[in-house]
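Budget justification aside, the reviewers requested a transparent look at the raw inputs and outputs of the sequence design task funded under Objective 1. We therefore reproduce one unedited record. The lines immediately below are the structure tokens for a 382-residue chain.
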């Protein structure tokens, strides 16, 4: 097992009715900017619950943070937060609202000339406004990690950044808030969490049986519970299990002491930047091609995945790997998520993606050995 440091400071408050606890989680003297997305929280009663919980607090609202949150929108929130002298940010919504809020928290304290440099620079974030989170979509794990992904339409860029200062102080996870998710978003969440686990699990063996079994437990639970939530959106138990899986998938626990990949995510972010494909749907396209291209390097773990997660017991290693990839594709498709570029009508311009990695001098994969030629080959298999 590799060396590691694990510290996750986010307080998780889980279960139905938990939004009422918001008032005790934020000091009364704070001036809160409540951030949200396109308005789902106003339609499904979540906003009313939050407003009731904050009756004794001072808060201002900033709505309109879009899926794949945009820099241009977030800078307007920074202006509002400055003019209202907000000193606490409360994100109410999905991963995009929360990622956007993490950027606002960083930009509010940024001393440099151009806040976009928070994303393009590798300089660490030195200070951030504190954040709390009420999550309404189980998917990204952003509620319990320090990462965010921000898009800029004018340049077709989607860039990730992170800092230990950006972990939410608390995350309220009430599975009932996810009852109103459209099927597409429920499915996206299951796929995103599933791929988060695979990016930390399907690498190469380092003698980490506990982390492997933790990863496999999340995968098996998503396979069991995902279809239940799709069939019955108000199945509390299924919603609760999916929500907890999604948090566990990217809160740092299963990556302790093991190699990580993230190549599927990096290529997926470019698909979203160029073609506007939902984050999870980009992953469902790239992952099968990635596994086919990397079947040698990842073979031992894919075979373990086949046996322990999909129950495939074949002597022939090649057949075993093929079966694991096919079962994964079948699972995504059963949720209504396409697994090929052609499912999304993409036939042109795909070579821009490999070129972008080349321009940035970026090499990816758990061995850091993949460049343009690999990315081109992977996308050919998608
Ligand atoms: O904007 P509103 O009106 O709230 O509607 C949203 C949005 O249209 C809707 N929604 C959310 N909760 C709802 C609801 N509709 C009805 N009822 C509810 N309870 O769902 C739509 C999608 O929301 P979004 O926040 O975009 O989805 P998600 O949580 O999947 O977040 C995706 C973003 O997170 C990034 C992705 O790249 C993408 O930008 N990621 C962040 C990560 C992180 N910070 O660690 C890791 C991930 O790999 C990912 O990259
Ligand atoms: Zn993801």
């Amino acid at each position: 097992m590799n060396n590691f440091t694990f510290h996750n400071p986010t307080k998780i408050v889980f279960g139905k009715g938990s939004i009422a606890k918001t008032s005790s989680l934020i000091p009364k003297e704070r001036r809160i900017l409540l951030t949200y997305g396109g308005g789902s929280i106003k339609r499904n009663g979540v906003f009313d619950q939050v407003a009731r919980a904050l009756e004794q607090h001072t808060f201002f609202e900033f709505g309109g943070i879009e899926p794949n949150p945009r820099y241009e929108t977030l800078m307007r929130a920074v202006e509002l937060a400055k003019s209202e002298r907000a000193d606490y940010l409360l994100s109410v919504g999905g991963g995009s609202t929360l990622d956007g809020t993490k950027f606002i928290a960083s930009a509010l304290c940024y001393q440099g000339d151009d806040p976009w440099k928070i994303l393009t620079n590798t300089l660490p974030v030195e200070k951030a406004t504190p954040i709390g989170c009420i999550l309404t979509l189980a998917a990204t794990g952003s509620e319990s990690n320090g990462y965010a992904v921000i898009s800029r339409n004018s340049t077709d860029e989607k860039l990730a950044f992170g800092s230990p200062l950006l972990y939410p102080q608390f995350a309220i996870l009430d599975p009932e808030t996810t009852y109103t998710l459209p099927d597409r978003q429920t499915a996206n969440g299951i796929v995103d969490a599933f791929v988060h686990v695979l990016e930390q699990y399907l690498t190469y063996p380092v003698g980490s049986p506990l982390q492997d079994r933790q990863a496999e437990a999340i995968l098996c639970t998503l396979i069991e519970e995902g279809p239940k939530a799709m069939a019955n959106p108000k199945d509390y138990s299924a919603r609760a299990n999916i929500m907890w899986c999604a948090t566990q998938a990217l809160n740092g626990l299963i990556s302790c002491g093991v190699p990580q990949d993230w190549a599927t995510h990096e290529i997926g972010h470019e698909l979203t930047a160029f073609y506007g494909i939902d984050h999870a749907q980009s992953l469902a396209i790239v992952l099968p091609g990635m596994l086919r291209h990397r079947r040698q390097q990842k073979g031992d773990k894919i075979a373990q995945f086949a046996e322990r997660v999909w129950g495939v017991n074949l002597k022939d290693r090649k057949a075993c790997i093929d079966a694991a990839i096919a079962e994964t594709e079948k699972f995504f498709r059963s949720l209504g998520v396409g697994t090929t570029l052609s499912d999304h009508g993409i036939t042109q311009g795909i070579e821009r993606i490999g070129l972008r990695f080349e321009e940035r001098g970026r090499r990816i994969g758990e061995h850091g050995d993949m460049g343009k030629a690999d990315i081109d080959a992977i996308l050919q298999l998608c």
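DSSP finds 15 helices and eight strands in the chain. The longest strand covers residues 88-93. Computational costs for records of this kind are itemized in the attached budget.
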